[in-house]
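4.2 Preliminary Data

To establish feasibility before requesting continued support, the project team ran the inverse folding procedure on a target of 300 residues. The structure was first converted into the token representation described in Section 3, and no sequence information of any kind was made available to the design step. The complete token record follows.
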């Protein structure tokens, strides 16, 4: 009959980090690679549960799932559908791990076994590639590709269960500026305006450069009873930020740029957020033709 001590000895010879828990997810053993990965001693591990090693946002659900998994003697599997689990080491530093779990029975007692691999490098590389694909090279804002993902419901930071405002704007007479002072100056103006917008926008507002001098801003509406007032106030704020004088030292010049702005709201103007892009674009051109600061989709 195999003993738990024999299994522990065997696990010490394996290169991957491995944890063994009892049916209540209390940690009863961690091999040397696991000690190194998390930075705890064996005695420290013996006072901990598995959910002490994961990030707070998954801690509660993780405990219940692990306890159920062990008690049901479920088949071996890789944890989490997305493939990685957010973990914390002894210093409170987060890292991403790929974890495979299984159960084993020793002397009529059921134990959980977790094989843990540090996937931080792989995960971070994937995230960097995603960010590069979704970011405008010139301004550092999100790009047209990412706007498409957002409005088609692939991103949930902005809750689509709430009202969402959209601003579509472009810069007035930007082409003559480019033609007169050169593309480097035009690029500098775009970067400066983006920098100013980012310093004033809220943390959950999303700014996109969709091409040339065209931009889109997505933002949550908080005053649902007076949403048009909130839309107009936000549009005026954006207009003021854009029109602030820009210094061009190389040309010994101070330049003022203005914008034409189209504004709309989801779901009041349309029940499809993707359709609001075209509608606010149309409202923006209406603003430009009228010489107004902004134009509402609802007035089209």
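Position-by-position output of the design step:
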């Amino acid at each position: 009959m195999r003993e738990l001590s024999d299994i522990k000895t065997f696990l010490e010879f394996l290169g991957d980090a491995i944890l063994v828990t009892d049916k209540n997810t209390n940690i009863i053993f961690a091999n040397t690679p696991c000690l190194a990965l998390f930075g705890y001693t064996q005695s420290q591990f013996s006072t901990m549960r598995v959910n002490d090693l994961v990030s707070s946002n998954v801690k509660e659900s993780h405990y219940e799932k692990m306890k159920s998994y062990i008690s049901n003697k479920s088949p071996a599997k890789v944890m989490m559908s997305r493939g990685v689990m957010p973990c914390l080491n002894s210093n409170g530093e987060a890292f991403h791990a790929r974890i495979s779990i299984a159960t084993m029975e020793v002397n009529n007692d059921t134990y959980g076994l977790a094989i843990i691999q540090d996937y931080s490098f792989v995960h971070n590389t994937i995230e960097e590639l995603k960010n590069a694909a979704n970011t405008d090279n010139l301004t550092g804002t999100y790009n047209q590709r990412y706007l498409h993902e957002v409005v088609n419901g692939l991103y949930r930071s902005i809750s689509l269960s709430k009202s969402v405002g959209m601003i579509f704007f472009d810069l007035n007479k930007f082409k003559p500026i480019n033609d007169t002072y050169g593309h480097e100056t035009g690029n500098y103006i775009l970067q400066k305006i983006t920098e100013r917008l980012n310093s004033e926008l809220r943390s959950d507002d999303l700014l996109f450069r969709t091409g040339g001098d065209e931009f889109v801003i997505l933002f949550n509406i908080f005053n649902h009873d007076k949403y048009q007032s909130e839309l107009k106030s936000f549009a005026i704020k954006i207009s003021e930020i854009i029109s602030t004088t820009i210094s061009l030292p190389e040309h010994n010049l101070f330049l003022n740029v203005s914008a034409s702005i189209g504004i709309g709201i989801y779901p009041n103007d349309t029940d499809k957020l993707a359709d609001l892009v075209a509608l606010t674009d149309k409202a923006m051109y209406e603003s430009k033709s009228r010489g107004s600061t902004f134009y509402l989709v609802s007035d089209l």
